[in-house]
Amino acid sequence: MTLSATPIPTSTHDHFSITFAPLSLEEVYGLADDAANGAIVVMSGMVRNNTDGKPVVALEYQAYEPMAIAIFQQIATQIRQIWTDVTRVVIHHRTGKLQVGEISVLVAVGCPHRTEAFEACKYAIDTLKHNAPIWKKEHWEDGSTSWVSIGACEQPGENC
Fold first, then answer.
1. For residue 9, pLDDT beyond 70
2. Distance of CA 9 to the CA centre of its chain
3. E strands of the chain, at which residues?
4. What is the dihedral of CA 26, 32, 34, 38, to 10 degrees?
5. Which of 69, 107, 126, 141 is exposed most, by the fewest CB atoms within 10 A?
6. pTM
């Protein structure tokens, strides 16, 4: 696991990053901005204070970085095959231990039209959570911990 990674652009328009550093809404929005956009949709995933009613105090993320970045690139490629007007795809994910309220993932999609931007952004986060080699360790209020694959969040009945 790398503590901090230099963001890796795959084209002149997209931007992907796995980083130990806090994520910036302003930075991600700026990277998704383009004069052709009529909409930028940003999804901010945050550490919440419970899972299935059980108190959570922190989450710890680990990633297999090269493969995760490759998955982010594949997601952008797939988005452009479905929504051909998309101008920018930005995906940034944190690693390390995060406290309740901290941002763990940011996905932004720029597009001329809002409907496509919303759909593409939803596709990006859903696909990321299912396919990216990123794991989270839940730190419970009682001091116990448990590891969860983010891909498990896409199983029926899971509240991730």
1. no
2. 15
3. 15-19, 39-46, 50-51, 54-63, 88-94, 96-99, 103-111, 134-140, 145-149
4. -90
5. 141
6. 0.87
